[in-house]
Amino acid sequence: MHMSDKGFVLWFTGLSGSGKSTLSVPVAERLRKAGYRVEILDGDEVRTNLSKGLGFSKEDRDTNIRRIGFVAELLAKNGVVAITAAISPYRDVREEVRGKVTRHGAGFCEVYVSCPIGVLAERDVKGLYKKALAGEVKNFTGVSDPYEAPLTPDVTVASDHDTVEQGIERIIGTLARMRLVPETT
Amino acid sequence: MHMSDKGFVLWFTGLSGSGKSTLSVPVAERLRKAGYRVEILDGDEVRTNLSKGLGFSKEDRDTNIRRIGFVAELLAKNGVVAITAAISPYRDVREEVRGKVTRHGAGFCEVYVSCPIGVLAERDVKGLYKKALAGEVKNFTGVSDPYEAPLTPDVTVASDHDTVEQGIERIIGTLARMRLVPETT
Question: Which domains does chain B have, with CATH numbers?
C-alpha cells in the first residue's frame, strides 16, 4: 500500500476517440490494485460539474482545462493519483498546469494518445467525425478546431498501432522510470 | 495515522466575518496532527479557480456551492478530510451536497458558525458591513441577500459567545461523536 506516498497527475491528451478512456480505465485499475487511491477526471463529467455554461472557444476550453488542473492538483497533493482524460488541445495551458502541479512537489506525467484523423474518422464510435467532416459540428477538435500535439510527452501511445495492453505497459513503465511508482507496479 | 480511513466533509456555513476561517484553520491543523490529510476549500480561492465569471444571484451562488461540493466529495471519497469555508447561504443546496457526499459513503458534518449581524457590523474586519448597510454593496449576504441558517446543523459555534478554543473542542467532539474521528483526536 502506498497511502502515504505523494500523489501525482497522469494527464492524457489526444483527439476525441483516440483511446484516452480506453487506456485510463485499466491503468487506474492497475494502480488501485497496487494500493493507490486513484480518481479519473473524465472530460465530460468535469464539464458537467465544473464548467457548465462554458463553450468551446480557446478561452473557454482553457478555463475548463485549468479547472481540471486545479482539481487534479488538489487530489495529487493529498496523495491521490489523479488521472485526467480530457482532449486538452492546447499546449500552453497543458504546460501551465504541469508547472502548477510540479511546483507543489507532485509528479506530472503527460500521456499523448496519438491516432491519425483518418483512422478516427473510420472508427467514428460516436458518429461525430462524419458530422464534423461534413461541417455539421462546429469547434470539433482536429477537424474544425486546433489540436496541438505535445512536443515532448512523457510517453506516447499510438492507438492505431499499439494494443491496449502494450499501451498500459508503456505507461506503467514510464511511471516507474519517473519514480512515481515502484518498479514492481 | 489514518491514511486508509474514509475521508469526510466538514462543511462550515455562516455569514461573512462570522469566524469560519478562524475556526477551520486550527481544526485542520489539529486533524493533520492526528494523521489526516486535510484540504481547506476556501470560498474566495474556489471562486477564483472554479467559478470565475459567476455572480451572486441564487443560481450562480448555488452553482458555486455545487462545485465546491463536487470537489469536496472527490477528496473525501479518496480518504481526504475536505473542509469547506464558504458562506453557502442556501439551505436546499447545502442539503443537496450533503446527500451527494453521504450517498457515496463519506461522512458529512455541518458546522454552523452563528453571530448576530449587529456584532458582525461592529467587528467589520473588512469594512464590508458598513458599506452593505449603507446600500453600497449589492447582494451582501445577511444584509441585502438572504442567509438561511441551518435548521439542524451537526454542531453550532456561536462566535459572539464561544472562544475559538471552545469552538475547536466542540467541533472535534462532534466529529468523534459521529465516529468520523477517534475519541482520542
Answer: 8-177 (3.40.50.300)
